Amino acid sequence: MKFDKSGKFLALGDKAGRVIIFECPDSSKRRDEYDYFS
Q1: How far, CA to CA in Å, does 4 sit from each of 1, 13, 22?
Q2: Measured distance CA(1)–CA(29) in Å, rounded
Q3: Residues near 20 by Cβ (< 8 Å), separated by ≥ 6?
Q4: How many CA atoms lie within 13 A of 11 on its CB side?
Q5: N or C: which terminus of the chain has fewer CB atoms within 10 Å of its end residue's CB?
Q6: pTM of full prediction above 0.70
Q7: pLDDT tens digits, one per residue of 15-31
């Protein structure tokens, strides 16, 4: 699990090498809410 420097993106990976990226929308008032990005 890794955040980018801005905290807008969160990347999660597993042992099989798959990576899922989540994005924190600008309109989100909650800092702990992320949407699926890729």
Answers
A1: 10, 14, 11
A2: 22
A3: 11, 12, 13, 36, 38
A4: 9
A5: N
A6: no
A7: 999 999 999 887 656 66
Asked whether 1 and 14 are in contact (CB, 8 A), the reply is: no
In contact, 37 and 9? CB cutoff 8 Å: yes
Strand partners, 35: 23
| Partners of 10 in beta bridges | 3, 22
User: What are the domain boundaries of the chain?
Assistant: 2-36
CA distance 11 to 36: 10
Sign of the C-alpha dihedral computed for residues 23, 24, 28 and 32 taken in this order = positive
